[in-house]
Amino acid sequence: MPESTTVTGMVLSAMPVGDYDKRLVILTKELGKITAFAKGARKQSSAFLACCQPFSFGNFSLYPGKSAYNIMSVEMSNYFTELREDIEYVSYGLYFCEFADYMTKENNDEIEILKLLYQTLRVITKKAIPLPLIKIIFEMKMMVLNGQAPQVFECVKCGNTSEHYVFSADMGGLLCEACRAKAQNSVKLGTSAIYALQYIVSKEVEKLYTFHVSEEVKRELELCTKYYLNRYIDREFKTLEFLKSLKF
Q1: CA pair distance 224, 193, nearest whole angstrom
Q2: pTM exceeds 0.90, yes or no
């Protein structure tokens, strides 16, 4: 008979199943991304009522089934309730969860991505860094953790270092002046934007959200990230579309 197991993780999404149950996608430290069912979670008297929401983080006691887990008990340590009090904050949080869901795989080591998601939601609640900058950092670091890091320390084509670069998503990173002629959809970068990209790519998750940039640098980074994601991710995120609609 299969034994129960306890994992630490965050709920990425929750979907109603049947009359009273919920199907959860949880990103865990021990098992990577998993699917788990919470029986009776939609009943008002259920002990699972509060924990079966996106952003809920804590310990889940699970019993393995044929194709998914069943939740036996939970012990939550953070619900990120601050995010739910503002539609813009919750929209960013849901987008980050959807992005993480897309980028992760079941039964794969996703500890660093779980760490990134948790730290990102914490930063949102502190309100110390503008949300658009948080989004840039999260998206680019997620690509790095997924093994799709851009080359931001030298020219991706010739390997030379320079003081002047453009960023080419098609080429996979920075291009020096000599190699930039054939690049399409490239973004001219100032020194500060290059330093910011290098910091995001190289720093550990715990130290990511420790800097601010000017509006000009933010625009450069936004373009780099936009082109890079369009080049390597074939997915339209529903939460991102809703997030964009809030600006109009």
Answers
A1: 10
A2: yes
